[in-house]
Amino acid sequence: MVENFNNIYTLVLFIFACIFTPGFYAAAQLWETKKVLARYNIDESAALIARFAACWPTAEATVAFLILIFGPSGNWAFFVFGIVVFGASTIYNTLSYFDIAMTYGRGKYKVSPEAMYASVFKLLSYSLLTYSLSDKIFL
Questions:
Q1: What is the pLDDT of residue 29?
Q2: Where are the domains of the chain?
Q3: How far is 72 from 66, CA to CA, in rounded Å?
């Protein structure tokens, strides 16, 4: 398994960034929806969309688990899509946090620095994984 990811560090980063963190987020969204909504001052009527939002990290963790089992060979789309998604998320969360843009409904919710830091971490993780695994994912 380590040879599929070139070294132990890349494997550990992949497991943590692509399986553990989205799995943890999805579990929190699905089973502790009320706490998550209260934390961001969002009304309970948004529970359905909050659970729908948990579909992305659930799919991310599931596909990453399959990549872990079968190897990353040829799976460039997973890694590039992660860069695109978390690049956009980093821009959105940073601009929102600093009140530069995307302020619609700001009185109803708050953007925490956690969202910005998580997006930057995921963007850097996917970028590093794409670079480190380029010999395997781009066939």
A1: 86
A2: 2-137
A3: 9
